[in-house]
Structure formats: C-alpha cells, structure tokens
Specification:
four-stranded parallel β-sheet; five-stranded parallel β-sheet; TIM Barrel; alpha/beta; 2 domains; single chain; globular; 17 strands
Length: 378
C-alpha cells in the first residue's frame, strides 16, 4: 500500500478537516501531533508509553543528529531505524535543514549544499540534496523531508528571494535523487517538499505554487515559528493552505503551542510536530485541560489534587500536583518523566478533541473558548 489521504469531513466555517493518511506502517488520523524523537527516542518516554498511553501514531527523528550519532553504519546494520529503536509505526525524518541553519557560524551555505561542523566534535561534513535523500533512505523513514534552507526572522527581502529559489533548486535535485533510488528495508517511502518564503506573502505564494506542482503525497510548510508574531504565522499559513492541494495532507513544521495548533487546524493544517511539550515538561511547565501550570510554584506545595484529572495519562490522574512539585524540587528524574507524559498526552487529547469537534460540526464555535481555556496560566 502506498500513501493515500482520505478526507472524512470538513468544517463548514473554516478550512479545518479530519482525515486518514494511510501508510505502509499504519493509518495516521488527522489532525495529528507527532512527538519529536530527535535521536530516535522521545526524551524520557518509553516506547510502550508512547504506544499505550500517549497513543502516538507517528513520531519524528532527525537526519542531522542520527547521521552524526550513531551513524549510518550502525542504523543500516540494525536494519533501519524501526529495527534499531523497535518503533513499528510510521516515522518521519527532518532533513537536517533546520539544524544546519541553527549552527550559525559553523556552517556555510552554497549552491552544492551546506558545509558544516559537527556540534559533537567539530568535524567537517557536507549535506547536499542528494546526500540527505540517501541518508534518509538508509535511516528507513516512511516520510522523507526534502532539503531546504530555513531562513532567519527577520530576513531581508533580497536574501529571502534568493533563498526560496535555492530551496526550489534543491527540491528538484531531491526529487531526481529520490526517483533514482529504491526504498530500503522492504517498505515504501515518500518524499515531502517544503514551502519557504519567510514572511513575504508573494514569496510564500510563489513557493506554495511550486510545491503544489510537485504533486507529492505530503506537503510541508517550513520557516515559521522562528520568532515571528503568531498573527504573521497565521497569515502565511492562510496563504499557503489556500494554494497547496486540498486532497493532500499539509504539515506545519515545528509548531507549536496549543493555541497555535487550534488556529492552524482552522486554516487547514493536518500535521504538526514540536519539541515544546517535552522540553517545557523538563522545566516544570505543564499543559493541562484547565490551563498552563508551572509546577515549581509555591502555590502547588500543598495541592493534593490530581495533576490533571481529565488527562488520558494515568500518572497524571494518580499523582498530585504537590507530589510532582516535590519530585522537581528534589531533581528526581521521575518528575520530568511524569511531566513529559502529561504534556504529550494533553497534545494528543487536544488533536482528538479537535477531530471530534470537526466531526460534530461544532469546531468553529468551540475554537475561541478552547484557546482561552488552554492558554490561561493557573
């Protein structure tokens, strides 16, 4: 079976929709949130918990990090990333474009690709559109991301124009390489192109039209949530989702807060990923069905109510806020684990709630109240 996207229902007052992305390794129900497993693991969360508690249908890994450690030889010897980490469901790999962009002075962008120095040992490496396709083939990702240049914010107009053209030329080379190579480990793989264009509406439109012409199974939007105001993000997404094919899933990379997910689902986005749930969890910030909690605060010291009574995570229903605060102040690893499960479960609960609201035809009336509720600080 190849990659097929079926739209089940559309919201009448927005672009929100629910659907199923059928892949060789399982069905992904959209809207979907994809936990980030940068080096082949979601930090502090066992795979059994991802499967049985969080009920994740797809996770991410990162080309840049896996390429540097453990390296392609180890992953190939294992039989691909699914054999290496024992995750049996779909997996997406980011091409490493954002990580290379983040290296700043330790990278050099040119027509051929990007030369960079490893953050681990300073060794010099080169990523090209061709090499990142090869690497992701070897990793064994189900959804392979095209190599692109992620622009900073703010970004000068002239630079943005040149960068978009470079991303498109790199995409052409990615497609050529992808079509000339075979899937690995006996399972189909698909290549997803990425819309760029910084915060310039005409460049976003131009890039979206270019990507739409590719006719890919999945289309992505990159270069947002890099410091711009939320309103600008929504404006860019609105432009792009109005152009990208309606019958293909749209993936907004690296986004974001619960409010960001809700607003972007209304704009027609189907897939999300972000490190926010697990990163914030490790610092004691919890997303709950009542609002946002900083569990380190003194106010929770004697609060023996459940962390989040409505959570699908049994640990959040079982343990109290006071106990979790104690774990954080004691620097117990269990604290970060419980918090990570809470946040990931909340994000999964949120996308399932949105699916249900769209199915019932009540998404638009639910949306604004939900944003207020989930964004308030407790």
């Amino acid at each position: 079976m190849e990659f097929v996207f079926d739209i089940e229902k559309k919201d009448e007052k927005s672009r929100a929709r629910i659907g199923k992305l059928k892949t060789p390794r399982g069905v992904i129900h959209t809207p979907v949130f994809m936990p980030v497993g940068t080096v082949g693991t979601v930090k502090g969360v066992h795979l059994e918990e991802l499967e049985e508690v969080v009920e994740a249908e797809i996770i991410l890994a990162n080309t840049y990090h896996l390429y540097l450690r453990p390296g392609m030889e180890v992953i190939e010897s294992a039989g691909g990333i699914h054999q290496f980490n024992s995750w049996k469901k779909p997996m997406l790999t980011d091409s490493g474009g954002f990580q290379v962009y983040s290296l700043g002075a330790n990278r050099k962008i040119m027509e051929e690709g990007v030369e960079f120095r490893s953050h681990l040992d300073g060794s010099k490496h080169m990523f090209t559109p061709e090499s990142v396709v090869d690497i992701q083939r070897k990793i064994g990702a189900d959804i392979i991301m095209a190599f692109d240049e992620c622009m900073p914010y703010p970004c000068e107009r002239g630079y943005a124009e040149k960068s978009v053209e470079l991303t498109h030329r790199w995409l052409d080379r990615c497609i050529d390489k992808f079509e000339k190579t075979e899937p690995r480990y006996g399972c189909s793989q698909t290549l997803a192109p990425i819309v760029q264009g910084s915060m310039y509406s005409d460049l976003r439109q131009k890039s979206a039209e270019y990507i739409a012409d590719v006719d890919a199974d999945v289309n992505a939007i990159g270069g947002l949530s890099v410091g711009e105001p939320d309103e600008v993000m929504y404006e860019m997404c609105s432009i792009v989702t109005g152009i990208l094919p309606e019958l293909k899933p749209r993936y907004l990379m690296g986004v974001g807060t619960p409010a960001n997910l809700i607003e972007n689902v209304a704009l027609g986005i189907d897939m999300f990923d972000c490190v926010l749930p697990t990163r914030n969890a490790r610092h004691g910030m919890l997303f709950t069905h009542e609002g946002i909690i900083n569990i380190r605060n003194e106010k929770w010291k004697n609060d023996f109510s459940s962390i989040d009574p409505q959570s699908s995570a049994p640990t959040s229903r079982r343990h109290s806020k006071a106990y979790l605060r104690h774990l954080f102040l004691s620097k117990e690893l269990l604290g970060a684990q419980i918090a990570s499960l809470q946040n990931l479960s909340f994000y999964m609960d949120l996308v399932r709630i949105m699916q249900n609201e769209i199915r019932k035809g009540t998404f638009s009336s639910w949306k604004d109240k939900a944003i207020v509720q989930y964004s308030q600080r407790l």
